[in-house]
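Hey, I'm writing a tutorial for new members on how sequence and structure tokens pair up, and I'd like a real worked example in the thread rather than a made-up one. If someone can provide the structure for the chain below, I'll link this post from the tutorial.
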Amino acid sequence: YAFQRGAARETLRFLVSDKYPNLERLARENWNARDAIRQRHQTIDAYLAKMPLRDRKAVSLDLATGTGKSYVMYALAAIALAEGLVDRVLVLCPSLTIEEGLLEKFTALAGNAELCAIMQELGAAVAIPAIKRGNETIGTGDICVENIHAVYENTGSSIRDSFKGQGARTLVLNDEAHHLFSQPDKAMKEWMKFLQHANFGFQQIVNVTGTPYVGDDYFPDVVFRYGLKQAIADKVVKKPNYKLEDTYTAHDWQKTYAIHQQNRKTYGGQLKPISIVVTQEIVRCVEVWRELVDFLAKKEKI
């Protein structure tokens, strides 16, 4: 898609530009040039205070869920390595599920014979990057994909050893980066500390998310936006068409099961009914998932 190319180009323009040694330089330029920014923030210091990574080449991309954020991230990683802009790439995400999805997509793209042949023909410094997990040694030409919990729990992870002192020649890509700034639980606070840690010296950081908000405040460092409304209008993602939508207050799994079975019976010929359980925190979500799996296994004898 054109917007995916646009997102990659705009980000790379910033990363390679000598005009902007860091985010603060870009932010100050925008403060002076844009009335809308000055109206939203009382002072330039208040504006800059919302950018904890302003002393680095760090920016954010707003790409709606379902628009191919993973492909943009791979493009940034592959091009940065191909151009010799960095020696290695570290891709961080907030969960094991997202990590598995990224690994699958990145491995498929890195193994694409046509893409590899094109990169070799263009004389890429790294034509075929190796896709690795954090429990392997990360070397030159590698893209490491890892969930952030494994990084700071440090169990079986070689990331700290592989990236120590390598920050100046590393590109860090943060997926679902709203977790990085919103800090929904204590564990996520360690993500920012890791990025800022002097042992690594990370300088080139790109944050990607479909919900770039801290509370009600939009991210102050977005350099490219392709929002959900635009994605639906362009038919890149589909607008949900609900046949029926009901919201229930808390009740036991027995009632949830009964409602779901009734929906299957009533609407099964038209659609696939879905029951969604909403929790306040990620930790509680994992607990509820376990409870539901145990209930279903017992209920259906599976």
